[in-house]
Here is the input.
Amino acid sequence: MKTVHGLSLLVLTLALCACAQIGAKPWQRGTLARADMQLDADPIQTKLDEHIYFSKEASSGGRGFGGGGCGCN
Amino acid sequence: MAGLSLPALASAVTSLPAPLAAYAGQVVYLDFWASWCGPCAQSFPWLNEMQAKYGDRLKIVAVNVDTDPAAARQFLDRHSARFEIRYDPQGQLAELYRIKGMPDSLILDRTGAVLHQHEGFRSERAADYETAIQQALGEPSANVRSSH
Here is the structure.
């Protein structure tokens, strides 16, 4: 039982230590900035899809732009 | 990161680090840029303009943070730079000055103390950046704006 406690403490400590550096620094985003690293292949298509989606949903906000549910934004 | 200590804030850096020692005694405009950064490309013509206007009193040093030197060269082929370029592929200077975005610009006084820092480049704010340069050079500001 004692070994299990010791082991879980070790795992927990290692898990917490792993959080010291999260993500890339601003000057390290060269790879992330590449066109083939973008989540959407076609930004204009995404914008149109989002426009229709938020209009039908009668909601606003979400993926990076605001607006009402009127479909006029 | 050997040899460079890490202050909590860029303004805590009060003297020139070794890679910039050559600029001691001059007011330095330090601009961190990368080839993949769009606003950096926008800022280059403005930096050239500042070089032409204040180059005799102000040392403009553009620090490239690309890990690939070829990418930086390609960028410089497309965007002419009439100011000094330094390379910081390991990000040591970027880390030292706690760069928060790209581009990121600092103005250092003659001893290396940070007088001013701004993140990003927006052409509509260029007048503010120029005012900071004028203040650092101890000149009366031509751009009268409410202080912020």
Notes: The interface with chain A takes residues 32, 34-37, 65-68, 71, 88, 91, 94-95, 99-102, 104 of chain B (CB under 8 Å). Chain B has four helices and five strands. Strands of chain B lie at 27-33, 58-64, 84-87, 104-108, 114-119. The helical segments of chain B are 38-54, 69-78, 92-96, 126-136.
